[in-house]
Design goal:
Shape: globular
Largest sheet: none
CATH topology: 434 Repressor (Amino-terminal Domain)
Strand content: under 5%
Order of helices and strands: HHHHH
Number of strands: 0
Distance between the termini: 43 Å
Helix content: 55-70%
Number of helices: 5
CATH architecture: Orthogonal Bundle
Number of domains: 1
């Protein structure tokens, strides 16, 4: 039986990292320069969805990758957020 995903942002983190031609080692080093003590192995677990990612970590990942935190969410989750936010503003 496969392990359930512990985060939904991992595949998007990997996609943005690869678009920038960064190895996991290089990206982990970039995270460390921002003060986050993360190893390549931990990053690998995040990208595979095997490690939980806090909201603060998502914000930091987005900052380092040069994108919005919502860009790190799957499209279906982003669509749900848009619908939920539009209902709250009514």
């Amino acid at each position: 039986m496969p392990h359930p995903l512990k985060n939904v942002s991992g595949p998007q983190v990997q996609r943005f990292r690869m678009q920038q031609n960064l190895s996991q080692e290089a990206f982990a080093a970039a995270c460390q320069r921002f003060g986050w003590d993360i190893s390549r192995g931990t990053l690998s677990k995040i990208e595979a969805g095997l490690r939980c990612v806090s909201d603060a970590e998502v914000v930091l990942l987005a900052k380092i990758l040069g994108c919005s935190p919502t860009d790190l969410l799957p499209k279906d989750v982003r669509a749900c957020l848009v619908v939920a936010c539009s209902k709250q503003s009514r």
